[in-house]
Specification:
The complex is a heterodimer of chains A (about 325) and B (about 300). Chain A is of the alpha/beta class and about 325 residues long. Chain A contains 13 helices and 12 strands. Chain A folds into 2 domains: about 240 residues, Rossmann fold, CATH 3.40.50.300; about 70 residues, no CATH class. The longest helix of chain A is centred in the middle third of the chain and has 18 residues. With about 300 residues, chain B is mainly α. Chain B folds into 2 domains: about 70 residues, no CATH class; about 220 residues, MetI-like fold. The chains are: A alpha/beta (about 325), B mainly alpha (about 300). The structure holds adenosine-5'-diphosphate and magnesium ion.
Chain lengths: ~325, ~300
Amino acid sequence: MTAPLLSVQKLSTRFHTPRGVLTAVNEVSFDVRPGEIFGLVGESGSGKSVTLRSLTRLLPYGATIDGVVLWQGQDLVGMSDTAIRKVRGGQISMIFQEPMTALNPVLPIRVQITENLKAHTDLDSSGRAARARELLDIVGIPDAARRLDEYPHQFSGGMRQRAMIAIALASNPKLLLADEPTTALDVTIQDQILNLLLDLRDDLGMSVVFVTHDLGVVAATCDRMAVMYAGRIVETGTVTDVFRGPMHAYTRGLLGSIPRSGTERSMLLSIEGTPPGLASIPNGCAFHPRCVFASDICREKRPDLRPLGPDRAVACHHSDAVLAAGSVLA
Amino acid sequence: MPLTEFIVRRLLQLIPTLIFILIVVFVLVRLLPGDPTSAILGDRGTDADIARINRQLGIDQPIWVQFWLFVKSVMSLDFGNSIVLKRPVTELIAQRLPITVALTLLAALISVLLAVPLAFVAALRRDKLADNAIRGAFQVGLSMPVFYLGLILLTVFGARLHWFPVGGYGDTFFDRLYHLILPATTLALSLSAILMRNLRAAIIGVVDAEYVSFARAKGLAPRLILIRHVLRNALISTVTLFGLSIGTLLGGAVITETVFAIPGAGRLMVDSIYGRDYPVVQGLTIALAVLVSVTFLLTDLLQAYLDPRVAR
Ligand SMILES: Nc1ncnc2c1ncn2[C@@H]1O[C@H](COP(=O)(O)OP(=O)(O)O)[C@@H](O)[C@H]1O
Ligand SMILES: [Mg+2]
């Protein structure tokens, strides 16, 4: 097995609010290997975005991060502000859900690409201009020379997302953090962007952490996955293994909610109830109030994330029963 | 819409504005109490004198002819002669208006220099001590009338400390600038309070924007993020407010010039209204209205420059 590119160990992120300390990410651990697409799934509010932003410490002022994020032998959590700026955008890039709000509305695309190049490469201004054109070509934006001088509002939704990807790729990052990059797009455009990301992974050999609440998207793109609930990872494994035999009742429920046709967005409606707020996470297993397999032990003792093989782990007292119940997809 | 088209279109919009200004001034002057003929002649005029002056002023003509004559003379920058000072109005305006413009520009500059850095400090130290101190101080400044504030500054920095002259207007450029600093500061304080509050709110809105996160995710230096991404976006709404405030600033200049005994257009306007010097009132009103329209035009252009969504 190859050494991981990124190793996240017991990552916890807390927000210090007037109403108390909220733990949005709780002892999350996972590895990302070279060239793989790692999916992070869960309902809205489960802590996916906070996890992703914690990796390069892109959190609002006042949030605290504990644990270790190992990147090329260095811990990003303890790194100086100056040093982590070299990593951000240069080695680890990030793309966001809403390209309309993530692109600066008052700057032409050219500036938004070249400022990245200026921060991380030795290219002179003509070199940066050439690279900017090349990047638009790479992400499939036609007529690059002209479009570079246009502003985000002059691009369509799909083209905007391509532009954001071009900006993220500017300085040849080894890892791309993608936070629901296709959620705001309609289905055909969504497929185009997913295919683009797959191609880029193959051509550039980079790894991707792909955050989504859409298991259909995970099946189409990811190699391995982790399922998050209430700030913790509750199940992880290769996409094939998890889809074939979910071992956590929550994963099983999520899989049951993928629409059969595959054309409509999954709304994750098949699990009864709603996820808990951070201020009121239940004792024991956080999922037990919504779980059909729940018993007394689930209410009293929180299950540890038990490793079941090199790639597989689950945090459920009744994983055998869940596995035996079978995947709803099968 | 390309930028040049926007500029041309905006310039064309100036024409109806100017026509509207002319109509309003023409009507207003004729609605003022007392008529110019008796203002010129006083109580001593015979009927023949009155008829002669009326003919000279064109008041015996039908109203639309009067308006046409009025427009023609305004176009040739001829506003007639001052009744009181017995000099061409154009000459008076050319002499006094630049002083008011200088005062206003200096006040505008001071308010920006005060507002922008303080707004940054307040926004980035939101709800901390610095933020509350800045906001509290400006709240006090905002609730004080201009003339009162002027008198305080005058007493403290003029009469007590002798740092600045207590009034009047110098001869050389730097002397004049020196004379204008205290009145301009007086004028600037309330505007800077308004700008500061607006910009502070705008910065707070922008700092949490996704594109600022994206800029951080690119690994840019904090200072570059602050200037290029935060300030540029936050300024858009503040620039508009600033432009619209220039008219108010000109109005405030009238009071300030009186308090500090500065011989500007504001003083001239007040004196002319008291002296029923209609040609001067009329000429000054048009000049000030044109000035304000041009500021609005410049504001729009600046906004279009800052915000590509306006015109590109
Ligand atoms: N700045 C913040 N302050 C307080 N709570 C936050 C903040 N950002 C996110 N949260 C909370 O953290 C939890 C996880 O959020 P997030 O990671 O955005 O979820 P998602 O899985 O939908 O991406 C949510 O309950 C959210 O309300
Ligand atoms: Mg999210």
